[in-house]
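Hi Y.,

Following your request, here is the sequence exactly as I used it, all 227 residues.
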Amino acid sequence: MTTSTSRPDPRPAVTMPTGREKHSHYSYRDFFRFNRDQGTIIDWNNTQNLLLSEDFIVGLQTGLEREVGDASAAVMYTIGMDWGTRDSVYFSQWYEREYGIGVKQSNLLFLLETWWWPFTAQGWGKWEVETESKQKGFLFINLFDSMVARTLGDVGKPVCHLYAGLFAGFFTAMTSRELGCIEIQCYAMGETYCKFLLGGQERIDAANFWIAEGASAREIEHRLHQL
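Below is the corresponding structure, written out as tokens. Let me know if you'd prefer a different format.
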């Protein structure tokens, strides 16, 4: 997997590949620029990436649980939310530079796929956004091959708190609405993919209550549509 940082890089700017104007960087070789001499990995958006092993994720998770117990979920969520908030700013900048149009004037689905594509390339998994219920103030995000859940394995509980925070932070910043996010189905619970609910806090609280009662993701979806 890779992580990235948008901090200013003091080294010389990377020369982007010929054909940059095509906006087509949807392949591993196009998206990443490896420089063995400098020991760097720079992506299409001039962001520096780091290679990390699955052992890092296991160590981070177990270390947090050892230090703060059950509060580790809230810590990971908070980290993710800060990440999503910061990334929304950086994304808005490179999106406008890349396509010559502001995020507010863009097609929603194209915008979201453009935001998530770098995460997919970096190994964070593929996603699918269900926008059918957005008029009701919430939506669902399906995440396939979660880096965290895949690494931790079947532990019988949701573990993708970092993702939930990331989605909450990004969407809150982009919509200027206070949104929360909760994982209502997880690969680490033996499911085939992870599922998140994104919406206002009252809906997140309701979903959290139903999860505690043992409701499935399908049951939670049904109850939300009945509200």
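The chain has a mean pLDDT of 88.

Thanks again,
Q.
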